[in-house]
Amino acid sequence: MIDKQxxxxxxxxxxxxxxxxxxxxGFGLCGIPENAISELVRLGVKDxxxxxxxxxVDDFGLGLLLQGRQIRKMISSYVGENDEFERQMLSGELExxxxxxxxxxxxxxxxxxxxxxxxxxxxxxxxxxxxxETREFNDKMYVMEEAFKADFSFVKAxxxxxxxxxxxxxxxRNFNPVMCGAAAITVAEVEExxxxxxxxPNQIHIPGIFVQRIFEGTGYEKRIExxxxxxxG
Length: 233
Description:
The radius of gyration is 18 Å and the shape is globular. It is 19% helix and 25% strand. It is an alpha/beta fold. It is built from 6 helices and 11 strands.
C-alpha cells in the first residue's frame, strides 16, 4: 500500500498558493478541517475561491480566512451565521455564488466521479439558472450544472489509516465524503491515524484512492454554533 501520511498540516498544504480554489468539508462547524484552515491562515495565501456549505462564524472556521481578507469568492449554500461575511458581501468586497445545498453536494460528487455536468430541477426559473443551459425531461424543466474544479480539497475524518482510508463520525459525515477525490489533491486530517490495514474494511466510508495526503490533527475545539438548552424541571 502507498503510505500517504505526512507529518502535519504544514507538510500537507505544500503547494498551496494565491488564487487557488479550495473545497472545505463540514456543515456549520461540524466536521470542519480545523488544522488545515489554521495553516491557511498562517500561510496568508490570498485571492482564494472557497467551496464550502457555509462560511463558519466570525471567529472560527472559514470566518478566520474572511477576517484576513484571504477569500475573494465564496461558493456556498448557507451563510447566515457570519456577520463579517455579510459585511464583505454587501460592501462588494467578497464575490458570492449562492448554490442550492443539494446542487452544491452533487457538483462535488460529480467532480469526484469524473462527471463533467448533470441536470437538476433545483433553481429552474430563478437567478440560479441564469446563463445556464436548460432542458426538458419527462415534461419537467432542468438546469445543467457543471462539476466543480478545485486545486485542493480539505476534509476532516474521525479515523484514518496511512493508506488514506477514512471513517467519519456522526454528523461529520456531511460534505466531507463527497469532497474526497473531487479536487486535484485531497488532504485529510483525522483525529486518530492508524497503520494501514488497521481499519475494518466494512466500516470504511472513503477508500484511500480518493486521498493523496493524510495527517493526524491536534487541538480540535469542535465548537457548537448555537447552543440551545432547556432548564431542568
